[in-house]
Amino acid sequence: MFFSRKAEPVTQKVAAILASYFSMDVAETASWCKATSTDGNAEGVHVTLPFCIDSQLPVLSDLVLAKLKADSKHALTESQLSFSTEITSQQTSLPPITNIKNIIAVASGKGGVGKSTTSINLAFALMKEGAKVGILDADIYGPSIPIMLGNTSAHPESEDNKHMQPLMAHGLVANSIGYLVPQDDAAVWRGPMASRALTQLLNETLWPVLDYLIVDMPPGTGDIQLTMAQQVPLTAAVIVTTPQDLALADAQKGISMFEKVDVPVLGLIENMSYYQCRACGTKDYVFSKDGGEALAERHGLPLLGQLPLDIHIREHGDAGTPLLISSPDSPISASYQEAARALSMQLALTLSPREEGNKHIKGNPIGIVGS
Ligand SMILES: Nc1ncnc2c1ncn2[C@@H]1O[C@H](COP(=O)(O)OP(=O)(O)OP(=O)(O)O)[C@@H](O)[C@H]1O
């Protein structure tokens, strides 16, 4: 291969700065950095990141430029340094679904800990960080995604009576059993019917190209959840828990369930970690303190985020405009984005890329309903 003599050192310099910033080996960050040149002479550096951190790019760019400036031989101007994101499709044991790079299960051992609320806000947070995201409501017995997206009366359209166009709400692509059958019908389904419904939803939806499909799993760790986890080509799972012992014991079962089916757990998200008084700012640890952190530590997993018990999270979820949509610049939205960045990085940096690459990415189908 032919390298420009001038280009190599500056890309290496940028790779070294990135390696130190992300606490990684320079050999890994070097593959992200390419010299940009028009006539064979290096004119700048383009960095392709394998995870989505759009909100941090201005800070990262300033840091790289400042460090390069300190070394005048390698100084770059702002226009000579650019960033983009290319999410890779990671390995799964089951064959992938057309157009979906990574499927992430959001699960909880215990019901009512805020799994669906976390799923939807994480999905929007990943979008805000630059990823293409969809959500699949696998909570067959209690689908809440249509309520949280404010489109309970919507139905996916089908041109051939075999495949569905997913719904689109606030830019997020979605499908749910809640759009297809009345709640009371699904509530009496037995296990095999429920997991068949999930695989149908997954396989018969015309998903556009997605970096991440978030799957809001049904609560619990019983046979139904286990079968679902086995039937879906999950890339990884995230466990949502509240900090009290009861929920943690169930979260532990959730971790074991995914271990049993060889689905890597990316980390934990602790929901309702504390309540902060609006008048005096005091934090009350309503459901105990640091339980998520202790569980994460015990399993050698990262704690991807801690979200407070907050009235706005509930109100906006119930109103069909999740917090990330209604108050995108609030501190709680920033916490969801931090968790989304941690999740994206954890997925890109700890798992292996799919051996067959992106053969299953075929391109966007046309006309998503309700966009
Ligand atoms: N951090 C939070 N602060 C305030 N309310 C919250 C928070 N997280 C979730 N809630 C509320 O708690 C209720 C249960 O949340 P959600 O439906 O997300 O839980 P779940 O774990 O998915 O429940 P299920 O087990 O029934 O599927 C909802 O009313 C939601 O708005």
Automatic annotation (TrEMBL):
InterPro entries: Mrp-like_CS (IPR000808), Mrp/NBP35_ATP-bd (IPR019591), NUBPL-like (IPR044304), P-loop_NTPase (IPR027417), YlxH/NBP35 (IPR033756). It comes from the Bacteria. Gene3D superfamilies: P-loop containing nucleotide triphosphate hydrolases. This is Iron-sulfur cluster carrier protein. Belongs to the Mrp/NBP35 ATP-binding proteins family. It comes from Alteromonas genovensis. One of its GO terms (molecular function) is 4 iron, 4 sulfur cluster binding. Keywords: ATP-binding, Hydrolase, Iron, Iron-sulfur, Metal-binding, Nucleotide-binding. GO terms for biological process: iron-sulfur cluster assembly. ATP binds at G109, K110, G111, G112, V113, G114, K115, S116. Homodimer. CDD domains: Mrp_NBP35. Pfam families: ParA. The keyword NADP does not apply. GO terms for cellular component: cytosol. The keyword Iron-sulfur applies. Binds and transfers iron-sulfur (Fe-S) clusters to target apoproteins. Can hydrolyze ATP.
